[in-house]
Design a protein that fits this description.
The complex is a heterodimer of chains A (364) and B (601). By secondary structure, chain A is mainly alpha-helical. Chain A has 14 helices and three strands. The longest helix of chain A is centred in the C-terminal third of the chain and has 33 residues. Chain B has 601 residues and is of the alpha+beta class. Chain B is built from 21 helices and 19 strands. In chain B, strands 2, 3, 4, 5 and 10 form a five-stranded mixed β-sheet that branches. A five-stranded antiparallel β-sheet of chain B has the order 12-11-19-18-17, sandwiched between helices. In chain B, strands 1-8-9 form a three-stranded antiparallel β-sheet. In chain B, helix 15 packs across helix 18. Classes of the chains: A mainly alpha (364), B alpha+beta (601). Chains A and B meet through helix 8, helix 11, helix 12 and helix 13 of A and helix 1 and helix 2 of B.
Amino acid sequence: MNNIFTFLFSRTDKQLFIFLLIILFFSLNLIGQAVGFDSSFFFKQLLFIAVGLIIFILVSVLNLRFLFRYSFIIYILSILILVLTAFIGTEINGSKRWLDFGIFKLQSSEILKLTLPIFLVSLIDYFKNRSQTLTELVFLSISFIPFFIILNQPDLGSGLIILFSGLIIIFLNGLSVKKILIGILGFLILLPYAWINILKDYQKGRILNLIDPFSNPLDGGYHAIQSSIAIGSGGLFGKSSELSSQHDLLFLPETHTDFIFAVLSENYGFLGNIIFFLIFFLFVYRLIIISVNLHSHSHRLLAMTYVMIFILCFLINIAMVTGLFPIVGIPLPLISYGGSSLFIYLIMFALINSLNYNKTLIAD
Amino acid sequence: MLNSRFILVRRFNILLAILSLFLLLIAIRLFWLQIYKNDFYLERSKSNSERIEPIKSLRGLIFDRNDNIVAENILTYNLEVDIENKSTEDLNNIIGELSTILSISEHERDLFFKMRSERKFLREIPLKININNEELTFFVSKKFLFPDVTIKEDFLRSYPHGIENAHLIGFINRISKKDLEKIENDPEMLDAYFGMTHIGKQGIENSFENDLRGKSGFKKIRVNAKNSFIAEIENKKALDGQDLILSIDLDLQRKSHELLKNYKGSLIMTDISNSEVLAYQSNPGFDPNLFVNGISFAEWDKLNLDPDKPMLDRVTNAVYPPGSTIKPFLSIAGLENNIINEDYSISDPGFYQLPKTKKIFMDWKKEGHGNVNIVKAIAESCDVYFYDLAYRLGIEKMSDGMRKFSFGQKTGINLPSEKKGILPSPEWKLKHHKKKWNAYETINTSIGQGDFLSSPAQLVHGLNILLNNKPMPPLSLIKDKFSDVSLGIKKITDEKYIEIVKRGMEEVTSSNGTFRSIANNNKNKIAGKTGTAQVFSLKNQDYDEDNIADHLKDHSLFIGYAPYDNPQVSIAVIIENGGHGSTVAAPIAKKMLDFYFETTK
């Protein structure tokens, strides 16, 4: 028994694991404060974290060669799950994003965060001797398929994150400056078209609310206003528990999921936020060091893409909660309540951890 | 391959740099929200969760002098709708759905939206007032369908004797836009009316509003976003309104209503010793209960367009030519100024010629009264005697003498919009008509015609002053208000003049007087003075009572008191277009006084 633990932990980066535990502890504490330490959400999250950590350890032990070998099948399976969701998914607030497994609902788009990069990176070697442009167009096409499916759920935020993970890989893989500029130009030209034909009214509303949340204080602007009040009232050290009213009194809904950062800001203030950022920074720093020092190009690429997705979602969520960004329904990685997102990130980090352990076995 | 690693790491660093800028932006935003704007958001966070709920004060009850209830509060259940953040369409939907289970009239709907547009401090607005038990239980069973509709206990003002006290008590009504302006300009009023829906509009309900209303309190509570109660922060109890005990006697009210029922007119009866009003009646009237929760347009139009003006309070808000009822007061002025004395007499041929002119003034009795002294002049209401008196006295001394009896001034009765009438004088005419006084106007004034106008309240107040021979406190509607106040000790005039005039008024009900019809039926010793006031001056035409349009007929007046050897109560009656004072007004006064002595003994 003792040997198994030793075996398992010997394959884990100690620093990474410790920071991870600290962050998960943070998550539990904040969810407890948001919904109560005796709430079923709190115990469910405790369970999710326990299961997540087991998954983390187990995945860390995996040899990733088979992942790359079967990456195409993994990708197709992921797409199938998305399609399945469109048919038998659970509808909440007008969008079908979840597959219901009883104890927990799987947000199917989260899987793509994990599997799309694996598939794309596995193709790098295959396209090694093909033209760069062809590779990029193929990558782009592969990324757009899940993007469109997710867009129709509808879930613009998650769709964009998936699309971005593909674009990040293309960018990191050495997209020329010329093509970058063409891409930006194309985007700007397509923007008005997207505004008129793709975005739904509520999505436009959310973007407009960002500009002036008080124009529509009870509908679209409500979250933005209440969230600003929660954060702003936190001050430097956080509000005393007697005054902490925004989330306790339900003015700010969904505090345990997308708006958990507001609970942190309200209860621990600006100083609490800085400490929180510092812990995340140390964790991310460790991830970057590991990623940069991986031995194979495709492994580095995969690890860096995961790190980027993680940072991006982290920042987008906080930007959204602080009113800098439209409300797009991206949870705060590792902190927000919910199994899907937590498991996906833990698997990502486990994969990075595994690549790190196995790097000596793979030479460039 | 080192090259590809170099590119990769460089690209990675570029992305990291971009995201760092993003992070910096977020940090600045957090600094802005949490440090720079902290006070602002802290305040908003507090106001977010605090809600102030008004606690209405209970309006004071009104009793008559025998502790009978005149105005009360009845416990009712109202349906109220939470209007916060709801559009007209939302509210229409709610009301539409409600009307599938309860009947909601167009009128109730109109009142609801009217109140919503006018009352910006109210969160919940009554839609259906005083729902019955059946509706109540039915609604409760369906309550879950209407999260924004609540049942509120409230008190409904009720006037059990309705029309009998309509003008005196008045009524309360919903606070109007105009009332609101007044309330909002006064912070103290704003506090007192917080959450209140009604205000006294007329009569005692209006003039005693501050006593009756009390002061509303409030409850400051913490709520969550679903508006559910969390905790109480502050509770300021409401101060209930004071009860009023009126000097009025409900039995007299009922009797006077009965007596005036077929007439347009009014009646006021007072306690001579202390100015307390015992009966106050004006007819036609209205049911004050109609107004309490907003009168419907149809009912309002009916009252408002009625040519008989049922809303008009004919006791204090209407003024009439007092006619011959002023003769006792004028007599005092004549006696005081030595124009006449007890023994002075004239010979009345039936007309009077204004000296130095050819103007002729007729006596009401064509053949004349013969030899007339002061007592006979009052008893028979001899016009020529008073023409002569007035001419020799002069208008200045005449109006000075009359002023002591409150003519041309308010009696000070605590009721809204009392009219002060007109006591004609040269200054008054110059001021209001920019014209000089003519000698013949003095003659007209001497019989209470011309520009002379006074209210029944004024007449009775003047009579009280005369009978007491001292200035009297204002007519009072509250019982025992002046019982301890030592009334003015300064006499108005020499007591012997009063005695002479009183003898004249006694003679009115004797076999020679104008009210001789009761000469043999006057066990309560009623004395007084009749009056007949011309509404329309007929030129070169004889007044023919049987062939003249009703609205041009003379007003019939009577002022009186009883018993004449120990005056206790006084009365003034006016019947519009009733003809002679002795035929309509005086008999009503007699019945009223008889009833008083019958019931109080």
